[in-house]
Amino acid sequence: MDRIRIVGGNQLHGVIPISGAKNAALPLMIASLLTDDTLTLENVPHLADVEQLIRILGNHGADISVNGRRERQGESYARTIHFISRNIVSTTAPYELVSKMRASFWVIGPLLAREGKARVSLPGGCAIGTRPVDLFIEGLTALGANIEIDGGYVNATAPEGGLTGGRYVFPKVSVGATHVLMMAATLANGTTVIGNAAREPEVADLAKCLNAMGAKITGAGTGTITIEGVRSLSGARHRVLPDRIETGTYAMAVAMTGGDVILEDTEASLLDTALEAIRRAGAEISETNSGIRVVRNGAGIRPVDIVTDPFPGFPTDLQAQFMGLMTKSSGVSHITETIFENRFMHVQELARLGAKISLSGQTAKIEGVGRLKGAPVMATDLRASVSLVIAGLAAEGETMVSRVYHLDRGFERLEEKLTRCGAHVERVSD
Ligand code: EPZ
């Protein structure tokens, strides 16, 4: 199994190209099931999660070609992928596929809307929390779906004549359930209004693509989304928006090691709250023509308290990385996680590098230490593992991160991007 070896202590200097967003690419790929025409997605990152979803869509009958030909692992950035689901050959998403990645549950929306039925395995729990699907079920029921859970599967059927527009107000913000309800409503009879919708940029990106396919969606990116159902959707060409989590991760890496890096092909407006927290911690951040410049020269790292929240709040997907940064601050900071109940698995691994962190319920208290020292650590989930990488960059000596398959789910060419900026990072195959 691969490991990542880091020798810390170098500052980062240079340019890092930011990839297309994993969490936008996944729902966009799933939206291709809504049409029998070709959906072409540009700027799709080359990640294990994308490859897994390609397998899942293939199981439903999608014909998928990458830049017109299949490519070997790691060959290209920013791939263009064509999806054609002329016929849906199966409306079942089996346990073996869905259990590998929660987002694959989201096929329930397009399958139900287009075929009138879907049988999708429950995704089950995962390392960061229980992550139930009650909101998906309530939302789809509001569109007239009949839903039963049987033998670990969600069986959903639409009434004769298809789903009908409805009104649903989420009791709690859910990104995935907003994606699914929005996709399902595009082909429903009549108008759907979704209240307390997720406002994440990835939701607005999905709506933009669906509208290019002929959907009639307004309000995506705000708390209220209105979808006027249409009879069918056509193909379209869409460019996946930049990955705000990757952007924030590298910004925090520079804030932690010191240096001067341009994050290219990204937009500050996608992560204002996180950038503000990094600024308060002591880095200088400015916008350039094509992205963001992050600089920290000499100044120490200041303690900053944060609370994770749905967009536009501080993203839970950057919480672990910010904790990494705070371990080297000059004082005491607090980080409160409000989205997932078990997203502090990085705490004990950061402690192996010398961090001083104590947990009380959903709040971590971080007492900054002057120096971190390299150690063997274990990746536990995607964002936790990258927090260990950036902490390793700022630690003295060698850090060896094991279980790096977590990183490969969401960070494209991590070693290469960091090495080009002067970091000492390499993949070691056993
Ligand atoms: C998306 O997950 C992201 N995944 C996550 O990123 C991200 O952490 C999360 O949104 C929050 O921003 C993708 O976009 C592929 P939710 P999602 O439904 O949609 C509860 C990463 O590292 N909930 O917004 O699954 C849920 O348990 C990943 O890239 C219910 O209670 O998250 C959680 O507490 C990890 N019932 C909260 O809502 C439901 O039916 C928010 O989850 C659905 C969710």
Any descriptors?
430 residues, elongated, alpha/beta, binds ligand EPZ
Helix percentage: 25-40%
Provide the structure class. Answer: alpha/beta
Beta-strand share of residues: 25-35%
Shape: elongated
- State the separation between the terminal residues, measured CA to CA: 6 Å
- Whole-number radius of gyration? 22 Å
Mean pLDDT across the residues is 94
**Number of continuous helical runs:** 14
Biggest sheet strand order reads 22-23-1-24
DSSP strand tally:
24
Uncertain runs: 68-75
Unique bound compounds: ligand EPZ
Strand count, sense and barrel status of the largest sheet are: 4 strands, mixed
Helix/strand layout:
Layout lengths: L2 E5 L4 E6 L4 H10 L6 E7 L3 H12 L3 E4 L12 E6 L7 E2 L1 H4 L9 H8 L1 E5 L12 H9 L3 E5 L2 E5 L9 E3 L5 H12 L4 E5 L5 H12 L3 E3 L6 E4 L7 E4 L4 H14 L1 E6 L7 H9 L3 E4 L3 E6 L9 E2 L11 H8 L5 E5 L9 H7 L3 E5 L2 E5 L8 E3 L3 H12 L4 E5 L2 H4 L5 H6 L4 E5 L2
Parallel strand pairs: 2-15, 3-14, 6-7, 10-11, 18-19, 22-23
Antiparallel strand pairs: 1-23, 1-24, 3-5, 4-5, 7-9, 8-9, 11-13, 12-13, 15-17, 16-17, 19-21, 20-21
Helix pairs in contact: 1-2, 1-7, 4-6, 5-6, 6-7, 8-10, 8-12, 10-12
Bound molecules: ligand EPZ.
